[in-house]
Design goal:
About 0% of the residues lie in helices and about 55% in strands. By secondary structure, the protein is mainly β. The protein has a single domain (about 5-310), classed as YVTN repeat-like/Quinoprotein amine dehydrogenase (Methylamine Dehydrogenase, Chain H, 7 Propeller), CATH 2.130.10. The strands form 7 sheets. The chain has a 4-stranded antiparallel beta sheet with strand order 1-28-27-26, with no helix packed on it. A 4-stranded antiparallel beta sheet has the order 2-3-4-5, with no helix packed on it. The model has no long low-confidence stretch (mean pLDDT about 95).
């Protein structure tokens, strides 16, 4: 088996932490070649210019920012601000017009339907109050919540499938994936059972309709998105967080904060084919589909490590 380790290209220095926490979710806007990463410790989105490979600036005032998502179709950026129960929305070239929408308790995961212009927000909630576990659906044009959907447990990450107009949201416990299909603002909801402890990272193979679900119990579980059938299981190097699927190379990248690695999987065989060291605590990554580069955010050294998939 050929090792699929990622080749290191260097580092990008980022602002030092000013508070508790580190980095969280990140996303890339392809047309502007900008990377947005949630710098939770600084209540800000850090912006990296991918053309120069350097830190550009930060967008501040986003208390406890945990999630970042972009829409290439509509040139929008979204942030989930867990410390103030809001979501931030702004245009790629209109940062000064950032607006906040109040949502449920401790928002985290984000997924977006660009056709209906609906943003789904997965609210982590408060462990002592099961009534705070919820999903918020935002009409982005109106900048308002149009529906709140209760869920049975703490949410994790979320994704959107444009072919079926369905949102998928990981629930940590009970171990499930909530499926939300929207038609004329009427939501159909179903559950897929996940045979693993703590569904966390989530991504989707649109070609084969497979859900990749990385679980806290150190397992990568693949399910059929329609039937919920378990298609494969694989062991991980540790408890995972963010995952990204490279549809061109058929590789899956899994960020693992302890011990600080990225597991690389061949999604044809669903075998782990390589492991790349990052830094202890580096639980979040970004993926550039144009260049096949992977960015790992290093909380101890306040920088992003840049890698390239050598099988491009």
């Amino acid at each position: 088996m050929v090792e699929l380790d990622l080749k290191p290209l260097g580092f990008i220095d980022l602002p030092k932490h000013t508070g508790l926490g580190g980095f969280d979710h990140a996303a890339i806007h392809a047309k502007s070649r900008r990377l947005y990463v949630a710098h939770t410790a600084n209540d800000a989105l850090d912006v990296i210019c991918l053309q120069t490979g350097r830190y550009s600036h930060s967008i501040s005032g986003l208390k406890g920012v945990a999630g970042a998502l972009v829409s290439n179709e509509r040139d929008l950026v979204f942030s989930s601000n867990r410390g103030e129960d809001t979501v931030g929305v702004f245009g790629i070239n209109e940062e000064e017009l950032l607006q906040k929408v109040s949502v449920g308790s401790r928002p985290n995961g984000l997924a977006y339907d660009p056709e209906k212009n609906i943003l789904l927000v997965a609210n982590v909630g408060i462990p002592e109050r099961i009534d705070t576990y919820s999903l918020s659906l935002i009409d982005v044009l109106k900048r308002e919540v149009v529906r709140t959907i209760p869920v049975p447990g703490r949410t994790r990450w979320a994704i959107f499938d444009s072919k079926t107009s369905s949102f998928y949201v990981n629930i940590g416990k009970p171990a499930q994936i909530v499926v939300v299909s929207i038609e004329n603002m009427s939501a159909e909801i179903r559950m897929l059972e996940v045979p693993g402890e703590g569904p966390h990272g989530l991504d989707f193979d649109f070609e084969s309709n497979r859900l990749f679900c990385a679980c806290d119990g150190k397992q990568l579980i693949t399910l059929d998105s329609g039937t919920g059938e378990v298609l494969s299981r694989a062991e991980l190097s540790g408890s995972p967080d963010v995952i990204f699927f490279n549809s061109k190379l058929r590789h899956l990248y899994v960020a693992i904060g302890d011990p600080g690695v990225i597991d690389v999987f061949d999604t044809v065989t669903m075998k782990r084919a390589g492991t790349t060291s990052t830094e202890k605590g580096a639980h979040t990554i970004a993926f550039d589909a144009e260049t096949h580069q992977v960015y790992a955010f290093l909380p101890e050294s306040h920088r992003a490590a840049v890698y390239i998939d050598q099988r491009r």
